Amino acid sequence: MQALQGRPSTRYNGPLGYQGENTMAVFTPLDDAQVASFLERFDAGRLIACEGVASGTENSTFFVTTDRRELVLTLFEQGEHDELPFFVDLLDYLDEYRLPVPGPLHDRRGVALQSLAGKPALLFPRLPGKHPESPNLAQCRALGDTLGRMHKVGQHFDGHRPNPRDLNWLLASHHQVYAYLTPADQALMGDEIDSYQSAFDDPDRLPTGAIHGDLFRDNTLFDGDRLGGIIDFYNGCSGELLFDLAIVVNDWASDAHGHLEPARHDALLGAYLQRRPLSDAERRLWPMMLRMTALRYWLSRLLVVYVDPPAHELTPHDPERFRRILKARIAAGALPLPA
């Protein structure tokens, strides 16, 4: 990456703490002596500079420069700390397969998860690149290829964390936003969830494995057309691979009106299918999964706006984007899958 000074800002919040729809902050300040002492646990070099990264909601994040490399230090302020070992194991596993993820640094005793200033802490390599606002076809192919590789190896990952945003969550949560919806949107949401229950009545029908769970374009880093990294595994879990793929296609291949763009769609899916062909059940349920994941983000954004706003001053993402995507998928269905 470029030098710390003058680097264009990104929404990088450390590989776990960045949540796609939020940014980052420093809630626990650290001085140079604390960071220098922390680095002595690792074979990572001597501290040159430490820069707190401002503006956000979840965790405290620092860009750390040593005489040997550039790193990201994250202190976990909120969330389920007992789930952190799952994320560490998942990143270690994917890093072993040379996927472009920020495998956490382990200390001289082989331990990754640390404590600093009374908070759980992880140290990561800083990955190259920036978020693509409007991905080109080469970037879509790169992402599809890497996601296919990740899903293929992720089927053999033995860690387990239930999907926190699956159909069960939709069933339990959607009534919380009904008071803020028009009668037409209440009916739309309720009818859709009824349809999903019928379509996905057999939970063992679809291939499962380790998934990212939130792979929006701003959770990737590109150096030109090269995928430099996939970040934010805080929603990583064990789930249906098709669920993960549908999240990606809805974000990466939708236009401003919610319609699928054939060129981006085919570039991404064509590369993915070269790595991991879909099963017959996945092909049959693909249109419905695109709809379900669109509603997943429509609902989660409505909850942030109306029910559970962020603790700090942030502008929530507009739920309307995924309402448009959902309605477009209902009206037009899915595009044909590449051969």
UniProtKB/TrEMBL annotation:
The lineage of its organism: Bacteria, Pseudomonadati, Pseudomonadota, Gammaproteobacteria, Oceanospirillales. The keyword Kinase applies. It is an enzyme of class 2 (transferase). The keyword Transmembrane helix does not apply. GO terms for molecular function: kinase activity. PANTHER family: AMINOGLYCOSIDE PHOSPHOTRANSFERASE DOMAIN-CONTAINING PROTEIN, AMINOGLYCOSIDE PHOSPHOTRANSFERASE DOMAIN-CONTAINING PROTEIN-RELATED. Pathway: Amino-acid biosynthesis; L-threonine biosynthesis; L-threonine from L-aspartate: step 4/5. NCBIfam families: PRK05231.1, thrB_alt. Belongs to the pseudomonas-type ThrB family. Keywords: Amino-acid biosynthesis, ATP-binding, Kinase, Nucleotide-binding, Threonine biosynthesis, Transferase. InterPro entries: Aminoglycoside_PTrfase (IPR002575), Homoserine_kinase_II (IPR005280), Kinase-like_dom_sf (IPR011009), Pseudomonas-type_ThrB (IPR050249). It comes from the Bacteria. This is Homoserine kinase. Its EC number is 2.7.1.39. Residues 51-278 form the Aminoglycoside phosphotransferase domain. It catalyses: L-homoserine + ATP = O-phospho-L-homoserine + ADP + H(+). The gene is thrB.
